[in-house]
Protein 1
Amino acid sequence: METLWQLNQVTKVYQLQDPFGRTVRVEALASINLTGHRGQTLGLVGESGSGKSTLGKVLLRLVPPTSGQIFFRGTDLTGLSETRLRLWRKNFQIVFQDPYRSLNPRLTAGDLLMEGIPGSYRERVVRARDLLLKVGLSREDFYRLPHQFSGGQRQRLAIARALGPGPELLVCDEPTSNLDLSIQAQILDLLLELKQDYALTYLFISHNLKVVEFLADRIAVMYRGHLVEVGPTALIMKKACHPYSRALVASARYQPTRMFARPVRAGCCYASFCPRGQSQCYQQQPPLQEIAPDHQVACFLPEGNAS
Amino acid sequence: MEKTLVVKNLALAFHQERRPVTILAGVEFEISSGETLALVGESGSGKTLTALSIVKLLPPQARLETGEVRLNGQSLTSLSEREMENIRGRQVGLVFQEPSAYLNPVFTIGNQIEEAIKSSLSRKEKKERVAQMLAEVGLDEKHYWHYPHQLSGGMQQRALIAMALINHPSLLIADEPTTSLDVTTAVQIISLIKTLIKKHHLALLFISHDIALAHYFADRMAVMYAGRLVEIGPTRTVFNSPRHPYTESLIACLPEKYKPGEKIRAIPGTVPDFANLPSGCPFHPRCHRRMERCFREEPEMFPVASALVRCFLYGNSVATEPGN
């Protein structure tokens, strides 16, 4: 399997001010190691605030990491200047959750698309028209403004715009979370079709495990800034080893999991809620370790794998 | 025995600008005590307005055209606003989507739950009642003294459930109670509601856009499209052998019904705008089994097995044998 992108010990710390003016350190990403394979879909799941979106943005260097390296096709993006980085940007694009806020309301669909397409004016018009049709919009939509589209159509437009520069990697940050079930199905179909036609690699970020299960080849589970488990989709869905992944899978099947809540200040990121915590868990964060080929878990006591 | 809630032939229109826009038409259902009815549909299908019509909390431009709502045998339709205030909270509990929006940030949780008590009790009795309710919804005694911001979204929702149930209502209306919560929390809240319904023999109207969740949770299911109920029946019947083409297509949109890489059978087009409803059956432009008459006439509800289905495939039609 060929590696397209890789995060190496990537950390992102936000320094925030609390209402009293004190500085608060928020570790959004804690030493993340993650690899994306070319032509595959990697699903990134976790609850809100777990750092999924930050990971997506850091990968595209929309947000600079605090430390660590980002490799894309073997090149370290962290060392590049903004000017050099701009030349790389055509290779990786992003689709956001809310197409109401991520499309410029003053530009027509045609202008929005043409912005990202290189070449002469003629070429750009032709390619923008093609893209519109490709994502299931019509020729007349070229001259319409974002507010004249429905939510689903707007998301199609956002996808077309991301495809304009001809990227290899597409980060989809909750692209269907705001959409109704019937529209979500249309967009998922579209993403599958585009992946085949343009040989795309996806990083698909979602809190909806069922959508990720359908779309992804591999799943990475995040919890409070830490990657807790990474593995092939079928394995995570059937034999997840981290207690949090298990809770997620159970919830997707509407089985409630008992949550323990004890105040834990140090140790594993999941220690406060884990049903299996041991003394070690309250002292340090377990590292993400390979417990089987292509299956990594960050847990001292992985379930179902007790030796 | 009289059902807890009976909704009959409800029709609602918005009166604004020149002509009235019909939103709900012919909405009919019943819920008996201890039973959960899930009202499912996509956004803009009229689910929430149906719930608000029951308790008469409608926006000013909305008007009930026809229909009757009966709660424990009493008709709510003719009641005055003051009389309705006695119904809400006392006989009907309400839980909504965004818990933080329904809590006052400057009062403690216990204070707010206590304030919802409508019967005259001494302070001590009220305190005891709140403590008992907190325990029932899985909150700790100490949360009595906590302010809303000190609680997580799931705990806030638990507090609101406590508030909704403190007067022992006979009907609980839960409008997307878990939509803004994380999945693991959502499932806990759902199972809490389920336990409380059983324990207190409540009738529950559960409104959700998530048909898979409704399937797991409800005894009966009503599917709504463009302000009409298109199918209503026992959950298992509706979910496992959907009769209405919309129900069928909606269930076929669930990604978990497919193997990875398979194409989802998505419904073409979008939900229609109420001001511009298609002629005949409102679903006909997106329907894969439409017939000629669907363009002209709107079907009524026809009984099929244990369900009612609003589709000409199942009644007063000329020898069209519905395949399955």
Protein 2
Amino acid sequence: MSDGTVGAGGGAAVAVEGVSKHFGEVVAVDEVSLAIGAGEFVALLGPSGSGKTTILMSIAGFEAPTSGRVLIDGRDVTDTPVYRRNLGMVFQKYTLFPHLTVRDNVGFPLKMRGVDKAERRRRAEEALETVRLGGYGDRMPSQLSGGQQQRVALARAVVYRPRVLLMDEPLGALDRNLREEMQLEIKHLQAALGITVVFVTHDQEEALTMADRVAVMAQGRLQQIGSPEDLYERPANRFVAGFVGEMNFIPVAREGAGFRLAGGPVVTVPEAGVVGEIGAAGVLAVRPESLELTEAGAAGAVALAVRDVVYAGPSLLVIGQLPGGTEVRARMPSRLQRQRLQPGDAVHVRWPETAARLYPDGAAA
Amino acid sequence: MTAATRIRRRRAVDGRLGGTASALLLAPFLVLMLVAFVYPLVDLLLISVLEPAPTLENYRRVFAEPVYGRVFLRTVWISLLTAVCALILAFPVAYLMSRSRGLFAGMLAACVLLPFWSSVLVRTAAWSVMLGREGMVNTTLKGLGLIEAPLQLLYTQGAVIIGMTHVLMPFMVLPLYGTLRAIPDDYARAAALLGASRFRVFAEVIVPIAMPGIISGFLIVFLTALGFFITPTLLGSPQEQMIVTLISQQVREVLDWPFAAAVVSLLTALVLAIAFLFNRFLAFDKVLGGGR
């Protein structure tokens, strides 16, 4: 990393305040507010149609929000045209101009800012070096691989030292290995530049590994924003619980101080694990890796009729049915369990009390 | 299944054809070209150097008389202006077409294509009505009190350029539309985000990427205009002849076939030279930067 690009300017805070976007009758984004700190890496995660891209496009200025404001560094930019927002952006594909060399592509934003040719050349080369493509300046984009093209796009997006970098599924078109390599590259670049990154993805693994905080979107609404650990360990609602990682949902009915699984035992859930107002019935959420084998009659033991046992490298996936008919999945370390389990076995499982969370009954919000 | 049928099957799936099949598919076209184009052209070429006796006299005359040089230059100039006008008028239309969908796109396409499908003669005749002394343009200007006496619009270079631009517009719009439509919106978005104003997005991104379409449209219109007959004859001034009018005059009035043949050969050579130069220096793959 050369000194010229390090720490120049750092990042800017981005705030989305009560932004809604309607396309005719369709509400793509519904009153979303997000506060992104300077230098923070935030991923917008959600299924397609969740509104995550619309939020990004509102920050970029390609979409005018129907209502609400977008602030960058505390300044309202809602009505500022795209080309004056001074943001960096990496798109999913089709970003490098096919008629320009790699160097001229990277130099393009500098040219738009009136930087003279020699200086453009110098800074473009420097930016290319930061993405390990020094010496590629004379090539045409079509002569580069997909991963190299995205790295050039990355260099072009930071060469003018914007304080915010927007990324719209930038790794979606790349294959798995390349994607992991680029994830690290982006993280390093972000750390070195101190730039604020807003990253849209539908790949939760990508969001969880890269971001400082992840904003989960669904149906135009912000479901939860928090650290990857928050999201995984403490999902704020049933949607997030089901969307992030694997989750078993087990229906329960209130009984005394605890909750009874259909055809099974009564379990208790610590106060911290109860989310929202629970009526007569609720849904217990337990991660597959929290389930462990136990003896019949042990505290909290639930019968499980094993249907499938799938060897999956480090873990063994056990799929079975609870007495109430609910299908559950359990992931156990392969080396411990492989010999003992077979389809058709009747076993007992339990989970630590603190590993379960209880959500209100009803459709995923 | 025998090996032979398997190979034939595979070919069919590939969509590639063998030599015989390709030759058969090309044959009707090649025969037509030979009979209706190559043979008459070669024949004319021969006439120009063989009649009345083997000589280069006909060519000498074209170059010796300054009037013919002027006709050539004027033809090139009018054709260039026509191509420029057509490009300026066609680009916005093609751009709008490439960015519209549904009914509106269909209506735009119809506006471009309906005239394309009607006769050149009809369209040219319409202009001679419009531009005449009592035509729509003159009566409108007079009605507005902008002019006292009718302007001489018909039988001028301007009339020729207007008429040819109109007739040749679709040849500009269609290739432009093709290239513009293939340009994803993301290029313009990326450029805007990188700090380019609308004008610079247009000038530095859209136009260069659309260059192959611009060049092919320009070439088609320019080269077609060089050899255009009906419009210059009906709308043009007899004092400011274009090359084809000269040829027709030599053939039909003066009956000097060898001389007309020499002019035709020179015009053909000019067209080929221009096409070659464009292809040489502005090869489309180079314009796109795809070539190595």
